[in-house]
Each structure stands twice: as C-alpha cells, then as structure tokens.
Amino acid sequence: MTGDLAAGLQVPPNCDLTLGLVCVEKAPGRTVWEARAHERFANPAGVVQGGFVAAYCDSAMGATVATYAAGRQVRVVSTDLRTSFLRPVEVGALVRCEATVVSGGRRVVFTEATVASEEGVPLARSNGTYLLVERR
Q1: pLDDT tens digits, one per residue of 56-79
Q2: Are 37 and 89 in contact (CB under 8 A)?
Q3: Number of Cβ within a 10 Å radius of residue 82
Q4: Residue-by-residue DSSP string for 2-51
Q5: 54, 81 contact by CB (below 8 A)
Q6: In a domain, 39, yes or no
Q7: Which of 18, 96, 112, 119 has CA atoms 20 to 30 A from the CA of 125?
Q8: Coil vs helix vs strand at 61
Q9: Start-to-end C-alpha separation, the chain
Q10: What is the C-alpha radius of gyration for the chain, rounded to an integer number of angstroms?
C-alpha cells in the first residue's frame, strides 16, 4: 500500500509493522492481509492473545476505509470495534484477514473483517465503525 496516501502519513504504519501485517490484495472498499502469528503475542495458554487479533482486524478495516475514501484527504478514526473469537489462533500459524466496507457515507463507514487460517477456517470475525475526518 505504500505511496497511496498523502505525504505526511507513514505507510505502512508502525502498528502494521509490529503485528507483521502484509497487504496482499487491495481494491476500493476491500483489502486482504496476511501475518504469521508470532510467539511474542501468545498468552499464558500458548495461543495468540485476543487483543492482538482484534488489533489485526482494526488495522485491516481502517486501511480498507482508507481505500473507500480514495482521493480524499482524511484521517480514519475507529469509533466502535466488536470482535468475536471463534477458534484459537495458534502461534506460528499464517493467518489471513479479509476486510470490506459494508456501507458508508462521507463521514461514517461500516466495515467487517474475517480472520481465517491458511486452510480457510474462520478464527475471528469483527465489525467496526469508522469516522472520516478531513485533514487540512
């Protein structure tokens, strides 16, 4: 996604770098991401802590909203995020997150994301609401 947004924004952002997120597909209102579940994100039970999975979804959905707002100088701000964990994310697993815009206007955008295993088994589902704030 580098080079798609206006000067002054770091692309990819530090949160994506920390989580190891890589955008593998991008279209207006839809992005697909991959990441290897790193052991540093494991909880005491030995699986990836849910907060990291939620952050993965939030980052993917926020970037998807940026593709929806293509051509506009905006900041994307999450205002609501809900994540349901369906199965544990195993350390070392390659996970894939598909995020899409469900509906949107000039200021508010509704999104959803699914995190799945390499085999396509759903691991988490998330939906979020994002606010588009004009940058000056």
Answers
A1: 999 999 999 999 998 888 999 999
A2: yes
A3: 12
A4: TTSS-TTS-SS-HHHHHHT-EEEEEETTEEEEEEE--GGGB-TTSBB-HH
A5: yes
A6: yes
A7: 18
A8: helix
A9: 22
A10: 14
- 9 within domain boundaries: no
Residue 102's domain is classified under what CATH number?
A: 3.10.129.10
Task: Please give the residue that has the higher pLDDT: either 102 or 5.
Answer: 102
- The band of 14, judged by pLDDT with boundaries at 50, 70 and 90, is confident
Map tokens 């390499």 to a residue: 118
Q: For the whole prediction, is pTM greater than 0.70?
A: yes
Task: Provide the domain count of the chain.
Answer: 1
| pLDDT at site 3 | 43
In a domain, 8, yes or no: no
- For 116, the domain range is 14-134
Q: Are strands 94-104 and 30-36 parallel, antiparallel or unpaired?
A: antiparallel
- Report if residue 103 sits inside a domain: yes
User: Quick one: three-class SS letters along 63-97?
Assistant: HHHHHHCCCCCEEEEEEEEEEEECCCCECCCEEEE
99-119: per-residue pLDDT in tens? Answer: 999 999 999 999 999 999 999
